[in-house]
Write a structure and sequence with these properties.
Blueprint (H helix, E strand, L loop, with lengths): L2 E9 L4 E9 L2 E6 L8 E4 L4 E4 L1 E6 L4 E2 L2 E2 L6 H8 L2 E9 L6 H11 L6 E7 L5 H6 L10 E5 L10 H13 L3 E5 L3 H13 L7 H5 L2 H18 L3 E3 L5 H12 L4 E6 L7 H5 L18 H13 L4 E3 L14 H8 L4 H7 L28 H11 L5 H15 L17 E11 L18 E11 L2 E5 L2 E2 L19
Parallel strand pairs: 1-4, 1-5, 6-9, 9-10, 10-11, 11-12, 12-13, 13-14, 14-15
Antiparallel strand pairs: 1-2, 2-3, 5-16, 7-8, 16-17, 17-18, 18-19
The structure holds zinc ion.
């Protein structure tokens, strides 16, 4: 006995057609017209779409960063993701400075024991030495095929060009992919103190400390080095015209280079959001910064013409109004160091958030919520408003993420033998985006008030029902680690 989705419209990266889909156990068993109903649980999907579960390849759950820890973890963050149609994500393990890659991995494994949806890991390398160089190929045994390097965050995560190029050569030799945060961190480190010294401390000056030129320059550098090393490169969170131009030049030259943008960069702007009155702009502080309306248009074009392959979120949410409760007192009394334990004693207690940077934009924790919102807002602005086709939507949010990161065809598509990660999507359901309808653990939503039409009403992962309307059916520990394959597609 399986579950038979009848009379729905299937959307994959390549087609949109009326058909039935049968799942048995954890996998997709059969796709075709008029499949027999006998012995199956039948789901009537008349007027509904069937899509593969979304994959967000860029998240930071439970991440210590900027003097605090991101709010959503491998429990609440997972539920929120699934309510928004995302059933698999890839999080960034961070190598502790001075530690090994295995040290980082052990930390992330401990964070993941509560998993409710499927997940994988990238490895962020912060400290490349001979031991780490030798350790890189062993990541393939752990199902990790992608290495992240930061060209920004001087004196924290930033690597130099020698490290970047040498990592690219190792990755190329082992069928791995290098991901870069492309901003020139040396220039940012020169601009920021000058702005602060001039009294320019409000959130909007964060954008002036990281102008599009430093993203374009770093993107160009990474693209050219990847071409020389013949190393597959994936530029994360691309935001602006100079960066897109650098990527296009590399692709035109035949380099194995790809890029993603995150949904927020398609919607938010400095003028409208970052420069909001008072401290409001802090909600929208992330790096690279949100840009201009012209950049948004360029991103939509790049999603359409194939310059960009993936839409992700860089989900990393912090309270706007955080830091309540006697944290110091609790630490002294209990010896505890874990924010989650602290917050459990009283749900009104919060770890520090954006307010850490009131009076100094450079101290605002970088990041925002988005994991639940991604497919909802991109469907509305992309498909409903005619910017991208439903097939391209599936390609950008489900299929390409799986292909680039070595999970296809297990994930990212609806095909016989694939995992039964299925969204039953109601294209007519309307909702207002915002804190009131969100499941993320955050006191603001960057799309607050936006009207959307179309969202998943039932969400399945490997045949298990996770979401049914507003009900949650998932369980801690049911999310599975997905080992990924090397030599993945270069799109
Ligand atoms: Zn990130």
């Amino acid at each position: 006995m399986g579950i038979l989705f009848k009379n729905g419209t299937l959307i994959t990266a390549t087609e949109m057609k009326a058909t039935d889909v049968l799942i048995a156990g954890e996998t997709i068993e059969q796709i075709g017209e008029n499949l027999p109903t006998a012995n199956h649980e039948v789901q009537d999907c008349t007027g509904l779409y069937l899509m593969p579960g979304g994959i967000d390849v860029h998240t930071h759950l439970d991440l210590p960063f900027g003097g605090t820890i991101s709010n959503d973890d491998f429990d609440i963050g997972h539920k929120a993701a699934a309510f928004g149609g995302t059933t698999t994500h890839i999080d960034f393990v961070v190598q502790p400075i001075g530690g090994s890659l295995q040290d980082g991995l052990a930390t992330w494994r401990a964070k993941s024991t509560t998993a409710q949806i499927d997940y994988g890991y990238h490895m962020a390398i912060t400290d490349l030495n001979d031991a780490v160089r030798a350790e890189i190929p062993t990541l393939l045994d752990e199902g990790i095929t992608s290495l992240k390097l930061f060209m920004a965050y001087k004196n924290v995560f930033q690597i130099d060009d020698a490290t970047l190029f040498s990592t690219m050569r190792i990755a190329a030799d082992h069928g791995m992919l290098v991901m870069v945060h492309a901003e020139n961190g040396d220039v940012e480190a020169a601009l920021t103190p000058a702005l602060l010294a001039a009294g320019k401390t409000a959130p909007k000056f964060h954008a002036d400390s990281r102008p599009p030129e430093i993203e374009g320059e770093a993107t160009n550098r990474a693209v050219v080095l990847a071409g020389l090393a013949q190393c597959p490169l994936y530029v994360v969170h691309m935001t602006c015209i100079p960066a897109l131009e650098a990527l296009r030049r590399g692709r035109d030259a035949g380099y194995p280079v790809m890029g993603e943008t995150c949904c927020q960069y398609c919607f938010l702007s400095v003028d409208e959001h970052l420069a909001a009155p008072g401290f409001e702009g802090a909600k929208y502080v992330c790096s690279p910064p949100i840009r201009s309306a012209a950049d948004q248009e360029a991103l939509w074009n790049a999603l359409n013409d194939g310059t960009l392959q993936v839409v992700s979120t860089d989900h990393c949410d912090f309270w706007y109004d955080g830091g309540h409760g006697p944290w110091q007192e609790w630490q002294e009394k209990t010896g505890g160091t874990n924010w989650a334990d602290y917050e459990k004693q009283d749900p009104s207690y919060r770890r520090p958030g954006k307010e850490l940077g009131s009076g100094d934009f450079s101290k605002i924790p970088n990041g925002m919520p988005g994991l639940e919102d991604r497919m909802l807002v991109m469907w509305e602005a992309g498909v409903n408003q005619g910017r991208i086709s439903p097939q391209r939507f599936v390609e950008l949010h489900c299929t390409n993420p799986a292909r680039v990161f070595g999970m296809h065809p297990q994930k990212g598509t609806i095909a016989v033998g694939s995992d039964a990660d299925i969204l039953v999507w109601d294209p007519n359901l309307e909702m207002t985006m915002g804190v009131a309808t969100s499941h993320m653990r955050c006191d603001y939503n960057v799309y607050e008030g936006m009207q959307i039409r179309g969202k998943p009403i039932r969400v399945y992962q490997r045949g298990n029902l996770l979401v049914d309307g507003e009900e949650w059916h998932g369980r801690n520990g049911n999310g599975r680690y997905i080992p990924r394959k090397a030599n993945a597609a270069i799109l």
